[in-house]
């Protein structure tokens, strides 16, 4: 079943066409990637899916219901949660209470929210830092916290905006199994990611956005060798140059 259908979405910022008639389908149970060069419009597309921005055109359908124009908190109640590229925890709250903020979506009882927060912290490897102030976490810790805050809302679809950015290779290796485990527990994932190793490792399907347009989609291995994708990242004529160099070295 297709859980999310974001169809023909367009977003203009005064003169700039940030997203231009882009379509993305996310299958239930999948990890779907969204990649593209800087400024391609990925975050803008995410914001329209999560309801933080209204599209100028196009529709967002979640579990067969049209949610275009619906406010973010109502989408969250349906089970659509997102993380932010710039991590902004409540610095003065400890890790447990930061995560509990997400849990309050489903309960008014602080004890229950904290209990769910504790369980969620363990899932992302923050179980031993529950009493620490969020401001005292490392970048890697803050990324995990961001993941936990979204997970505590009990999402059906989790939108991850560059959760691996800023992490070193060993920290990335630690987070990949956590993302896989979240999917194993039944959460569908749509992730913006620049780190290709992670995309190749995790994603069943990947979409490529360039200058606001969706230029390719499919299995990560196939998409990476697509001429239009190589040119979007490396410039016009790059695919031919790479091919020629490959032939010269053969
Ligand atoms: N609120 C805004 N007002 C005006 N222009 C904006 C706004 N938000 C984004 N843009 C512009 O829209 C385009 C797409 O930006 P967006 O952040 O969606 O790209 P991105 O693919 O997420 O980039 P990155 O990989 O660098 O995060 C860029 O040219 C950006 O400057």
TrEMBL record:
One GO cellular component, as annotated: plasma membrane
GO biological process assignments: D-alanine transmembrane transport; L-alanine transport; L-isoleucine import across plasma membrane; L-valine import across plasma membrane
Coiled coil (UniProt feature): none
Highest taxon listed in the record's lineage: Bacteria
ABC transporter domain boundaries: 4-236
Matching InterPro entries: AAA+_ATPase, ABC_AA/LPS_Transport, ABC_transporter-like_ATP-bd, BCA_ABC_TP_C, P-loop_NTPase
Keywords attached to this entry: ATP-binding, Nucleotide-binding, Transport
GO molecular function, one term: L-valine transmembrane transporter activity
Pfam families: ABC_tran, BCA_ABC_TP_C
PANTHER family found in the cross-reference section: AMINO ACID ABC TRANSPORTER ATP-BINDING PROTEIN, CONSERVED COMPONENT OF ABC TRANSPORTER FOR NATURAL AMINO ACIDS-RELATED
Protein name: Branched-chain amino acid transport system ATP-binding protein
Organism (species): Rhizobium soli
């Amino acid at each position: 079943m297709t859980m999310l259908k974001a169809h023909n979405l367009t977003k203009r910022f005064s003169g700039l066409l940030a997203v231009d008639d882009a379509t993305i389908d996310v299958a239930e149970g999948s990890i779907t990637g969204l990649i593209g060069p800087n400024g391609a419009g990925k975050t803008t597309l995410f914001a329209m899916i999560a309801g933080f921005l209204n599209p100028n055109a196009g529709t967002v359908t979640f579990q067969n219901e049209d949610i275009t124009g619906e406010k973010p908190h109502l989408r969250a109640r349906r089970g659509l949660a997102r993380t932010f590229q710039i991590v902004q925890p409540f610095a003065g709250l400890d890790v447990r209470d930061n995560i509990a903020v997400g849990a309050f979506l489903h309960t008014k009882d602080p004890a229950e929210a904290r209990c769910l927060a504790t369980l969620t912290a363990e899932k992302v490897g923050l179980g031993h830092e529950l009493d620490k102030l969020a401001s005292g976490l490392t970048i890697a810790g803050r990324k995990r916290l961001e993941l936990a805050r979204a997970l505590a809302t009990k999402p059906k679809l989790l939108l991850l905006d560059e959760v691996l950015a800023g992490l070193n290779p060993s920290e990335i290796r630690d987070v990949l199994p956590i993302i896989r485990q979240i999917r194993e527990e039944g959460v569908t994932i749509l992730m913006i990611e620049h780190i290709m190793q992670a995309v190749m490792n995790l994603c069943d399907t990947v979409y490529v956005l360039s200058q606001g347009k969706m230029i390719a989609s499919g299995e990560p291995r196939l998409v990476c060798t697509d001429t239009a994708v190589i040119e979007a990242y490396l410039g016009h004529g790059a695919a031919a140059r790479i091919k020629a160099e490959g032939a010269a070295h053969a």
